[in-house]
Specification:
5-stranded mixed β-sheet, 5 strands
């Protein structure tokens, strides 16, 4: 995630500098700053909120296919927009997605957009994170929890394979 932020800011700054070169009367430093901020905004919207391994789920059909029919364990973050605890949880889930890459799939589901799935699982608070194993609920967390509160459960359902 950190690398994504750096790339977004650098890319935005480069675009700002190029605009500054094209329009010579504009302040290049200010354009680079604005470009960097725009790059960070894009990363936050698209990378931060959906930086998890599997991305976002946009429909009940997609939920069934990606979560309930998955051969791997799946962690789903049921979130809503403008939710401070949801935002605080993002880096924790991104770190978990990195650590458990290839062993666990991670998805985000906006509870306000995919209401039928949220209702089916009784989602009443955000964030709610549910771990599914072979289509069945194997764990549920409500609120922004620590990395270790997820790690031990994920280690149990998706241990590192030693050869």
């Amino acid at each position: 995630m950190a690398m994504l932020i750096i790339i977004g800011a650098a890319g935005g700054a480069v675009i700002g500098a190029l605009i500054g070169l094209f329009f010579k009367k504009m302040n290049m430093g200010a354009l680079m700053l604005v470009g960097a901020m725009a790059g960070l905004l894009v990363v936050t919207i698209h990378g931060g909120a959906f930086g998890l391994s599997g991305g976002s789920i946009k429909s009940s059909e997609e939920f069934d296919r990606k979560v309930l029919e998955s051969a791997k364990p799946v962690l789903v973050d049921f979130f809503i927009n403008n939710c401070p605890p949801c935002k605080r949880l993002e880096p924790v889930l991104d770190e978990l997605a990195d650590e458990f890459a290839g062993r666990v799939e991670f998805y985000k589901l906006n509870s306000n957009e995919v209401r039928e799935v949220s209702a089916a699982y009784g989602i009443e608070a955000a964030p709610t994170v549910i771990l599914f194993v072979k289509g069945e609920i194997a764990g549920t967390w409500i609120g922004d929890m620590s990395f270790s509160s997820y790690q031990s459960v994920l280690d149990a359902v998706a241990p590192v394979k030693t050869e």
